[in-house]
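Continuing from yesterday's entry. The apo prediction looked reasonable, so today I'm repeating it with zinc ion included to see how the binding region is handled. Same sequence as before; SMILES copied from the compound registry.
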Amino acid sequence: MTLNIDEEQDVSVTKGMIRAEFNFWVGIVMDKFYDGLQEKKFIGTKCSKCGKVFLPPRNRCGDCFAKAEDFIDLPETGILKNFTVTTYKISERKTRNVKKDQIVGLVQIDGADSAMVVPVININPEDLKIGMKLKVVWAKNIKGDPNDIAGFEPIGGV
Amino acid sequence: MANVQPAVISAGFCEHASKRSDVNMAELVNEAVEDCLNKAGSVEWKDIDYVINGNMPAFEGANMPELWMTDHMAAKNKPLLRVTTGGTTGGSVFVSGYYAVASGLYDMVLAVAFEQQSCGNTTVGLASVALGELSIYPSLGYEATRLRRNMGAGAAIGVASYQAMNYMRRSKATEEDLARVVVQNRRNAAKNWWTHLKMPTITIEDVLDTPYISYPLRFGMVCPASDGACAVLFTTEEKAKQIADVPVYINGVGSYANEPAIIGVDCGGAGQTDPCEQLGAVKSAELAYSQAGISFPNKEIDYAEVYSPFPNQELQWVERVGLFEPNSAPEAYLNGVTALNGEMPVNCSGGVNSTNAIGASAMERPAESALQIMGKAGNQVPKTVHTALGHGWGGAINLISHVVMADEPQRKFK
Amino acid sequence: MDKVAIVGFYQVKPGLDLMMSPYEMLFEATRGALDHAGLKRDDLSTVIGCNNDYYDGKTISNCFKVEAGGAYMKDESKVEMDGAHAVMYGLMRILSGNHKLAMVYGISAPSCFPYESVRILETDPTFDRPINLLNGYTAGGMQMRAYLNAFGLSEEDIAKVAVYNLKNAAKNPLAIPEAQKTNITVDEVLNSEMLSAPLKKLMYPILCDGVTALILAPERQARKITDKPVWITGVGHFNDTYYLGDRDLSSCSSMEKAAEKAYKIAGINNPKSEINVAELFGHTACEDLILAEAAGLADKGKGLSLIDTGKLNPSGGTMAGYTPAANGLTRIVEAVKQIRGEAEGHQISGANKAIASGQVGFCAQNNIVYVLEGGE
Ligand SMILES: [Zn+2]
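Holo prediction written out below.
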């Protein structure tokens, strides 16, 4: 850590960073989801009351406040519910304009009632259509975490 | 006196441990919420019309985590409020639960407080209570290399050791007196299902055998860092009578703020020069007692839970909130007055000294007091508890929460 | 609901960087609110603050705001959401009968922290945080697309709202100069930088440092303190689920429920005709419309018509300068000024019933709305 007092501006600037590591336990159902990713598989959960299927899984249904701990295998395909295209990358540290289009999609896997915010790849932004069919593309190196989802691409090209 | 008489009808906990790595934060909170609802008789989650939550924000590195945890705390399509005040958070959430009912706006209020400390770095979190003002140090002539030591002083153990020194000077308490408090807490914790440090056979010698962390506090006297959550259900007097076997009425609340201790605003000096004086706690207690119609807390209160991560604080708080004469607490502990079967049992839950899921700790105090009145506490005292208090503190030992509860609504006090 | 009034208020003139310590800013606001109401600090019985440890870069930042916030030896607490949520807690404390005078303040200084980065910390740490695509920009972009698609509207329509907001800001002396654009055109908005398609930079508010404070009192005290009390006659507060995929982003169900509840308490049957002014906390120009529609001020998809009436965000709304943790309070204070007839430069004539709202979360997950009325 370095300290730097800028007297001319009558303001003190503290530079340097304090490292604080955060490890989030993934929990009962996400643990299974992560395991599924390791095998290139989507595992969701089903509400024991209303039958809604969640992917990524949650262990409680917000509508019924009932357990959703029955696991269910889900396919690799889904539809694009919504999307946006941005050149900004916002990390926990800073906001950067990377000057490169990234497509962010809200993708609902077939058979699921929820959707996930994931990258959409291998398509030009102008060809995107809400409702289009997509299929997951797995990352080259599977590590058993959400970034194993390299993205979703249109089925059969555009 | 509040326009509507609030009452507690249920309190729930999850099992506390140093690492609840089996669940994520949302699932951890959910365990406490479910436990609370399961013990609330006919009340269903749909009946809840207001949800209040809080934790220590910077410890897990998650901002307003209740937003993504909504579905897990039964808060979808309900109002959800977040109240955080550092270590006092749980107590402040409890007090806001009281106000949500007392306002007459809502009549079934769920309050949730939690902490999953194993997710984050609590010491960095606590150090940053001081770090925000770090930049002033060089102008005061400090060398940058010495900053680390100051960070230690800013974190809770630093404040607590100053407090302990001040208390010991005033009361002539010894290290043995401090160790006695620890032994009582940890043995109590062993009999309470949800606690973290369970030590049924611990002795004063065991505690005194551990090395100093910061004189006069030894390793064996320091609270653990826990993962845990607590949930409490509040309702009106009318509904409580229908639902609960023993409704617990909240008759007084106080949450006075003092100036920060040790680390003043922009390091302009300490607001409190003696951190064991605690005017805020004294005034909060006075306000709560006056609302509850209590004139002699040392006689009228049957049970107390105070927030004491460190043993000297327990001695100090029981005096400041009016349960014992100044400087007399060590003797009371020696004579077993505060033990499970004593005249004024204190922290029979095991206290914060045995379990400290920081955001939840200050709510667990009134929650356990309420359970003692209901006769449903994990480590129930043998005598009947009519009136009990739950106390919490936080911030730079300048924020307080003080709750007085009884098995009768306040207007019926003789 | 018993009558509770806003009897005094103060907004520190916001700026991109106020070059003030948070305590100076806060003291100016709390002192200002007390002076405005003609009260002394001794008169206060409770103080509710609103700030956020992540915004302040400091754990338990509220514990250092005790003195400047006027809370020394007062029964105090802190809400960590929007300032409008803190007003709810203040209101509860007054309605309980335990307190007779409550100070509520909201403060943050975005010149000192990366707001968009801090919002990342709001996301689900088990999925959205590692993926790192959900943020303020992308959520705003998807929300706008959902809204445009649902009602067959164009980007130009939202640009019109942005123009309307920025022109309104030009008439508001407490808007930041960077947002006061008298001659802005729809084309300028459409040609501004793309944040996250279709959301453009000029449809997104500019962050600024600021503090807003107000004082609440029950009826008896309020009538003694001021000749122009503004009554809170209704309040509604609701929270939706976090998951964007579970929500219809073209509308806002938590705002609908909150407004419905607030109107019910206030006895308002026809918000369209009864409400003269709405100061709503929309995070984008598009969200302003979504919230206004959810509050029943216009039919769904027809929110754009409100800009012709001028009753939506006459101050410029969030687009006049956005101070996290204080913005909802600023909206309430702006609505209060309208009812008191004191909105210099942007007064709506004859305003006597207003709504003001605050929110937190992506795509307005958690909304709180107040009905404010003048007169007896
Ligand atoms: Zn369900």
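Comparison notes:
- Chain C touches chain B through 69 residues (CB under 8 Å).
- The pocket of zinc ion is lined by residues A 47, 49-50, 52, 61, 63-64, 66 (CB under 6 Å).
Will overlay with the apo model tomorrow.
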